[in-house]
Description:
Blueprint: H1 6-29, H2 35-41, H3 46-49, H4 52-74, H5 76-94, H6 100-114, H7 117-128, H8 135-163, H9 165-186, H10 200-212, H11 214-235, H12 237-245, H13 249-255, H14 261-277, H15 280-297, H16 303-318, H17 321-332, H18 337-362, H19 367-388
Helix pairs in contact: 1-7, 1-8, 1-9, 4-5, 4-6, 4-18, 5-6, 5-7, 5-9, 7-17, 7-18, 8-9, 8-13, 8-14, 8-17, 11-17, 11-18, 11-19, 14-16, 15-16, 15-19, 17-18
Amino acid sequence: xxxxxxxxxxxxxxxxxxxxxxxxxxxxxxxxxxxxxxxxxxxxxxxxxxxxxxxxxxxxxxxxxxxxxxxxxxxxxxxxxxxxxxxxxxxxxxxxxxxxxxxxxxxxxxxxxxxxxxxxxxxxxxxxxxxxxxxxxxxxxxxxxxxxxxxxxxxxxxxxxxxxxxxxxxxxxxxxxxxxxxxxxxxxxxxxxxxxxxxxxxxxxxxxxxxxxxxxxxxxxxxxxxxxxxxxxxxxxxxxxxxxxxxxxxxxxxxxxxxxxxxxxxxxxxxxxxxxxxxxxxxxxxxxxxxxxxxxxxxxxxxxxxxxxxxxxxxxxxxxxxxxxxxxxxxxxxxxxxxxxxxxxxxxxxxxxxxxxxxxxxxxxxxxxxxxxxxxxxxxxxxxxxxxxxxxxxxxxx
Length: 398
């Protein structure tokens, strides 16, 4: 049939979409805990090798703007598959890096190639589901990402002593290839692009219109800060547990085991709750939880308490970012959903990149002071959110 039920079609490709999203976040998050070990392997400072995180995140964030525009012009399917293929090839090549500089460059190129998969998946949800129905599918996609985060942050650093860091990349590529093969086999639904005379000027104009409305501007600003805050904390957790508790790779993996698990187990529930009760209270709880947990890390606490705080920081992300993504799907509508989601991922991943850089620079002031600074700014954003996000109490059903 030429025009099958879009919701039924999405259900047939949801598993490989979730698999691809999970693998992208797996390889993104397995890197940061390895920073102390990679610094030793390549004989460079932790700050130097730490550039592998912002190199990937910033490239991912910038290029996704153009993926969103191109998907509105050519269709989600084509862009999603090309981006996933680029991720597969570049992830495999990364295992061949012979120096810190090569590794940084390959991470940058991987960010450029991989950044079309997740936003196109999210945009497909926005195309197909009404605003009041998006919480559950968005929650499931974010659960897959959180599962990738949890597995990557823990399994990567724990397996590295046995497999070596190169094998972590080599093993990821064929799994992503399997997801691509399933997608190509099942994507019989041909989504037509939204043809409306696309040009660079129109693309920039579309971004301007998304930011011109107060709801759009404040949403993207909160997404940007969310990226700065959570990446800043997460990127340097390996260094945190080495400096404060002198943990080895396996112990670090166990300490951050809880990172990503809340979203993996409760992502769908969080989405359904947002659909029924509104986003506002959930977002506030998420922002406040992350602030308190981060401040706790700056205290002299047992390692088990620190591990619990890490899990609560992850929960703070799970209670906020999927809900911000839900707002974004409403901003672009069905014709500009790719651009709206592209701008969302741009804000998030440029925040990720800048957050890791900023936290690394602030480490000159001391680890505990840096944690307090990040927690303090998070408190400010929580207070601001309490005033600016009141309109998110009820979801629009238009």
